[in-house]
Structures are given as structure tokens and as C-alpha cells.
Amino acid sequence: MARKLFSEYFYNNISYLGAALAIVVFVIECILFGMEFLSAGANSYLSLFTYVMLPPILIFGLFLIPLGAFYKKRDIRLGRTSDAPATLVIDLNNPSHRNAGIVFIVGTTILLVMTAIGSYKAFNYTESVVFCGTTCHGIMKPEYTAYMKSPHARVKCVDCHIGSGAGWYVHSKLSGARQVLKTFLNDYARPIPVPVQDLRPAKDTCEECHWPGKSFGAIELERSYFSGEAKENSRWNVRMLMHVSGKEQGNYGIHAHMNNDNAIYYVADDEKRQKISWVKSVNKKGEETIYTTKDSEHNKNVPSEEKIRKMDCIDCHSRPSHHYEAPMPLVNRAIAEGKINSDIPFIKAKAVEVLAKKYTTEEQAVSDIRSKLLAYYKDKQSAYYVSHEKEIHDSIEQVVVLFKNNIFPEMKVRWDEYPDNIGHMISLGCFRCHDGEHSTTSGKAITRDCGVCHAIIEQGPAGNTEKSVDGLPFQHPFNGDESWKEMKCSDCHSGAY
Ligand code: HEC
Ligand code: HEC
Ligand code: HEC
Ligand code: HEC
Ligand code: HEC
Ligand code: HEC
After folding, report:
1. Is the per-residue pLDDT at 302 higher than 80?
2. Which ligand has the shortest distance to the CA of 226?
3. Alpha-carbon gap, residue 497 to 356, rounded angstroms
4. 10 Å Cβ neighbour count for 66?
5. Mutate which of 134, 157, 272 to test ligand 1's pocket (most atoms within 8 Å of Cβ)?
6. CA 395 to CA 350: how far, in whole Å?
7. pLDDT tens-digit profile of 440-497?
8. Ligand 6 pocket test: which of 222, 333, 492, 494 has the largest number of ligand atoms within 8 Å of its C-beta?
9. Ligand 4: does its nearest atom lie under 6 Å from the Cβ of 349?
10. Taking Cα atoms as reference points, which of 372, 376, 370 lies closest to residue 393?
11. Measured distance CA(408)–CA(317) in Å, rounded
12. How far apart, in Å, do the first and last CA atoms of the chain sit?
């Protein structure tokens, strides 16, 4: 008995199983480790095995060893087994004990070092863009695709979704584990709901890189539009200055919203935060102003505390990294950049039409887009088609690219599913509050004045625009329609018409 290294309790089937499991997984881990070291670049599936899936099995194996001993000890106490325990005797003068001791110490040290490296690697790996963006394949494809061509393509997913600090790290890993499980069970919502409730306040994420007090002055936007009604896709240009912040003195401009002077709180009546019926502005002195719509349910009863959200960066910049664009701006830009040939008759209207149709899979969409456009030009514009076959084919392929980069039928991801709140043309955006219909009891409304947020400094048909540095009254492109004065832009503009 004295020759045995461990207490008698450890000699039982459960402990044997645990030890076997631990050893097998340990050997596999060593091999995977080696492969990882030798291979260039990260392989997300290999890493998923090495750092996320196998370690718990190893730990489970190790856990079985004392568990087996515990049961055996209990069985002996209850007299269920006759094996009497022997006392542990370690005799370093005994060569077999000495060897076992050395093996044990060296083994434990290696295991500890590998665990340390492993956890560090696991940490880095689960923080990496590759893990977040590609491990779950199709699910994150829309977010990942949009992210890769966004201004934040070099910012890690976790910098916005988690931020720094141990508490949030644990919080995110717990919800992350739940998400991985749901992925395996194929039990997740399509489209994925926006995470705004779980997202950290922008102060701890965006503002780690962007300084909210930074003065941008005015930012110039230049837009070109092409008519969807004219055969020649006539062009209309608009140039405007966005008053982001900074009129010489004071806290004026769009960013004044989240700057120190006003804190704005709101209550949304829907999950996508598109219907806002109660808004509160608190100035530096602590004076509150409350704006509501006529039909707001909060006119009588004050909304409960947990429904109220403090406005931050994300309430305007809702798509800083996953911007799914609508067909109208997509096609306008592609024509302006010369990717789609503007000489092709009605190409603006036709491209928007095929992009806006609902499809069930990307494959079906791509084949439909090609065949529909081709059929139109072959049948309805046959004279033009015969002499411009190549231009037409090239432009059709560009439309396919626009589709693949912005619309993801399998995940039900489109521009109308995830509205961008930065403007007001295709979705309500700023006009969720700035529609002239949110007012105080004394009748003061949140402004809808076209000159408050931007100044139009140039507009009109290409080659014949009007210009003024002081700002021009808006002229509705192409048709001079005046209904925008009474209606919201998004009443007519869905991004697709
Ligand atoms: C610049 C910050 C930023 C980065 C970087 C970023 N995200 Fe996001 N992400 C957001 C914001 C903000 C939202 C939600 C906005 C909202 O609530 O409307 C969001 C939403 C999401 C959603 C919910 C679905 C959706 O489209 O709204 C998923 C999934 C997602 N992100 C995954 C990722 C992945 C994967 C990466 C890295 C490849 C990543 N994000 C990188 C800011 C970021
Ligand atoms: C890790 C740093 C980092 C974080 C976190 C971050 N950003 Fe950025 N952001 C950048 C950098 C760098 C750029 C500039 C990219 C360029 O100019 O090419 C940028 C650009 C932008 C722009 C200008 C986009 C454009 O069209 O040029 C906006 C708006 C913006 N960020 C908003 C946000 C918001 C909102 C968040 C939080 C959800 C956020 N950022 C989080 C680093 C960050
Ligand atoms: C009230 C809405 C609103 C809020 C809140 C807001 N922004 Fe902006 N921001 C804008 C608008 C509008 C622009 C002008 C550019 C545009 O229209 O795309 C802008 C411009 C920017 C730019 C410069 C973009 C460029 O093209 O160079 C950055 C960076 C930026 N915002 C970051 C932030 C950050 C960080 C926060 C939170 C601290 C924030 N914004 C909060 C509306 C807002
Ligand atoms: C949740 C409601 C809400 C949303 C959404 C919103 N705002 Fe505001 N905004 C307000 C309120 C309330 C005020 C007035 C603050 C006060 O009471 O002084 C205001 C004031 C402003 C002002 C100053 C107006 C002035 O007369 O000086 C600007 C500029 C502005 N907002 C720009 C924007 C832009 C741009 C967007 C969209 C990207 C936007 N806001 C979205 C609620 C909102
Ligand atoms: C509360 C601020 C605000 C008010 C009020 C406002 N706008 Fe805008 N407007 C914006 C922002 C923000 C954008 C988007 C800039 C961008 O796309 O980055 C925008 C974009 C536009 C565009 C370009 C549309 C596009 O998507 O290409 C036009 C045209 C325009 N506004 C006209 C108007 C007119 C006309 C009015 C008055 C009825 C008005 N705006 C009132 C904030 C405002
Ligand atoms: C009564 C419906 C209606 C309203 C309201 C309306 N529009 Fe339009 N808008 C149209 C139609 C129809 C066209 C298409 C004209 C064409 O393609 O020849 C158009 C075209 C445009 C275009 C050119 C876009 C393109 O790619 O063809 C812009 C920009 C535009 N509108 C801006 C606005 C803005 C900004 C508002 C709100 C201030 C607004 N519109 C309100 C009906 C409307």
C-alpha cells in the first residue's frame, strides 16, 4: 500500500474517467497549440476549439477526479464498500516516489503555464474582430460586411460593444456564452434586435476615442441625385453645411445636444425607437422643459423612470459601424462615381426597383436582379441594348455588388429594418422630435426650421445651380413640389419609392 502515490480514495472509476478525459484533452490541446503557433494568421474555427470549447472539458475531467474520491469516501463511511483507506505515505528515499513527485511537479507547472497562456489567448481571441465577425458565419455577416467598409473598420467590435472594465467584461462574456448557445440551437431572432438597452453608455465607448467637446465647426456635405422619372437620369446637386458645433461663442449647434448645456431625455413607444412622444430637456440651471405630441399617452401620466432614456451619441449616430444603405442613395452614389453608367436610359429607376424588391435568399436576389434588368433592356430598350451591351452588363454587375454589400435576405437585414437616425429623409431620424409637432403645454415646439441644422449653400440641376453662402430656401429636386412644407420627407421617401 505504501507504494501508492495518492490516497486510496482516488482509486475509483469516476476518478479514472476524469483523469483519462483530462489527459486526452490535454494532449489534443498541446497539438492544437503547436498548430496555432506554426500556422500564420488566425483560424477562427481552430481557435474556437482550442480556447473556448476544449478547456471546459479539460476542467470537467479534472473536476471528476476529486468527485470520484468524494463518492468513494462517502461509500466507505456508509459501509457500502469494503476497501479500507490506507494512509498516504510519501517517502522521498523511495525512487519510485521521487520520480512520481518530479513528474507531478513538472506536469503541474506545465499545466499552469499553459493555462496562463491559454487564458490570455482565449481573452484575446474572444475579443478579436475575427471571432465576433466570422465565427458564427451567416449570422454576423450583415454587421461584419457593413463594418468592414465603415469608418470604424479598424476599431474592434468590443471597443463599442463592451468597452473597458472587468464588470462589463464579465457581463458581456455571460451574455456572449448565451448567444453562442443560441447559435448552436439555431434559436435567434432574424433580424437581430438592436442592443441599445445592453449597450454601455456612449460615454464609456464612443467617448473613449471621440472627445464630445471637440468643435467641428461646420461639415460640408455634397450630394448628387438622379431623377427616377427622366429617361436621361437628370442630375441635381445639393451642397450644404452641417452646423455640427461652434458658432463663435456659446454652445450652439447639433452637438450641443449631448454637450453640457442640455441633457435630453426621451421615451420611445416602440422597440426601434422611431415613435417618440415625450421629450424632456434639462438645462445647466436644472430647469426642465417637457415636449409631448398631442396624442401622447404621457400627457396625463408621467412616464415611469425605467422607460426614460438619456440621449447620447447613438441616438443620432445609430449606424456608426453597421450602415445598411437604402437603394436610392446607393444608386445615386454609384452613378455619381461612374460605377453605374448614367447614359443608360432609366437606369436609376430600374436599379432602385430591383434593389428594393424583397427576396428570400441572396442567391435568388442576384439571379433575379440579373435576369430582370437584362430582360428590361433586351425587350424594352432593344436599340440601345444592341449598341451598348457591355455597358449594360457592367452596370448590372455593379447593382449586384450594391445588393450584396447592403441587403442580407437570409438575416432579414435591410435599410428599413435598421433605420439610420442621422438625417430625416428616408426615415424619421431628427424629425422623430424635430417635426414641429412636439410642443410644451404653452405651445413652444421643438424646431423644424430648415436652417437650424444646416445651410444649403448650393442647389439645382447640374450645370445650372444657385449658390449662396448665407443659405438658400430649400427647393425640392426635379419637380418643385411644395408638399414637403406640410409633410414629412419620409411620408413619401422610403428609400425606394
Ligand atoms: C463604432 C462602434 C461599433 C463597432 C466598431 C461595432 N459595432 Fe456593432 N453596433 C454598434 C451600435 C451603436 C449598434 C446598435 C445601434 C442601435 O442600437 O441602433 C450596433 C449593433 C450591432 C448588432 C445588432 C444588429 C444591428 O445591426 O443593429 C450586432 C449583431 C453587432 N453590432 C455586431 C458587431 C460586430 C460583429 C462587430 C465587429 C465586426 C461590431 N458590431 C462592431 C456599434 C459598433
Ligand atoms: C477605438 C476608437 C473609436 C471608438 C470606440 C469609436 N470611434 Fe468613431 N471613429 C474612430 C476613428 C479613428 C474615426 C475616423 C476614421 C477615419 O477618419 O477614417 C472615427 C470616425 C467616426 C465618425 C465619422 C464618420 C465619417 O463618416 O467620417 C463618427 C460619426 C463616429 N466615429 C462616431 C462614433 C460613435 C457614435 C461611436 C460609439 C458607438 C464611436 N465613433 C466609437 C474611432 C473610434
Ligand atoms: C443630435 C444628434 C447628434 C448627437 C447626439 C451626436 N451627433 Fe455627432 N454628428 C451629428 C451630425 C448631424 C453630424 C454631421 C455629419 C453628418 O451629418 O453625418 C455629426 C458629426 C459627427 C462627427 C464628425 C463626422 C465627420 O463626418 O467628420 C463625429 C466624429 C461625431 N459626430 C461624433 C459624435 C459623438 C462621439 C457623439 C456623442 C458624444 C455624437 N457625435 C453625438 C449628430 C449628432
Ligand atoms: C429625442 C428627441 C430629439 C431628437 C431625436 C433630436 N433632437 Fe435636436 N433637440 C431636441 C430638443 C428637445 C431640443 C431643444 C432643446 C431645448 O429645449 O433647448 C433640440 C435642439 C436641437 C438643436 C438646437 C436648436 C436651436 O434652436 O438652437 C439642434 C441644432 C438640434 N436639436 C439638432 C438635431 C439633429 C441634427 C438631430 C438628428 C440627427 C436631432 N436634433 C434629433 C430633441 C431632439
Ligand atoms: C433637426 C435638424 C434638422 C432640421 C430641422 C432639418 N434638417 Fe435636413 N438634415 C439634417 C441632417 C442631420 C441631415 C443628414 C445629413 C447626412 O446625411 O449625414 C439632413 C439632410 C438633409 C438633406 C439631404 C438629404 C439626403 O439624405 O440626401 C436635405 C435636402 C435636407 N436635409 C433638407 C431639409 C429641409 C428642407 C428641412 C426643413 C423642412 C430640413 N432639412 C430640416 C438635419 C436637419
Ligand atoms: C409628396 C411627396 C414628397 C415629399 C413630402 C417629399 N418628396 Fe422628395 N421627392 C418626391 C418625388 C416623387 C421625387 C422623385 C422625383 C424624380 O425622381 O424625378 C422626389 C425626389 C427627391 C430628391 C431627389 C432624390 C432622388 O434620388 O431622386 C430629394 C433629394 C428629395 N426628394 C428630398 C426631399 C426632402 C428633403 C423632403 C422633405 C423636406 C422631401 N423630398 C419631401 C416626393 C416627395
Report:
1. yes
2. 6
3. 9
4. 14
5. 157
6. 11
7. 999 999 999 999 999 999 999 999 999 998 899 999 999 889 999 999 999 999 998 7
8. 492
9. no
10. 370
11. 21
12. 87
